[in-house]
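Notes from the 1:1 (GR / supervisor)

We went over the backlog. Supervisor wanted to see one worked example end to end before approving the batch request, so GR pasted a single chain during the call. The sequence is below; no edits were made to it. Supervisor asked that the structure be written out right there so they could see what the output format looks like.
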Amino acid sequence: MHTISIIGGTGSLGSGLAWRFAQAGNKVIIGSRDAERAAETAADINSKLDKDIAEGMDNLSAAEAGEIVVLTIKFNHQRSTLEQLHDAVQGKIVVDTTVPLVPPKVARVQLPPEGSASIITQQILGENVRVVSAFQNIAADSLPGDAPINCDVLVTGDKKDAREAVVQVARASGMRAWHAGPIANSVAAEAMTSLLIHLNKQFPGAHTGIKITGIPD
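Structure output shown during the call:
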């Protein structure tokens, strides 16, 4: 098991991932700009699981405490958050879920000049941080509770050992996860998010995702 810090962990994706990770037995640190709100989210997880497995902190303290640090933040907060956490995450695995959505046209693919949000994260944090891109295509609403997650997770990153750690965390948390190549391939997963948003708008209430076919379980 791991100690997993989730930066932006009070949002729908962050709290949903925290729930799944904690269910799987990982120690979870909820990070937020509002430490009190983070503590409330952690207390809710502990109450539902009837165990002391989650803790709330401010974002910087959470990044310092985690073995694996998961970013669940909006694209327009990405650079400022990474600059704040830069020193705290050196030598660690950082999992970036960020998607470069540009309101109001979030259903249109609008990738940054660097290629993807995860590539930006790797550039800002430097080579001593093993950045892994994952979880962009999981509908946040599908994470709370115990229902099976009916879509796959694409895991990209330049370090295979870091990818493998994230693949194993995802699988232990009830998700079907795959090694999907180097961080450059994060472009595909991030772009796919806007396509899925477009589909969800056509079918209200839908939680679209992706599935990899042709590979035996």
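Supervisor's comment: DSSP finds seven helices and eight strands in the chain.
Batch request approved.
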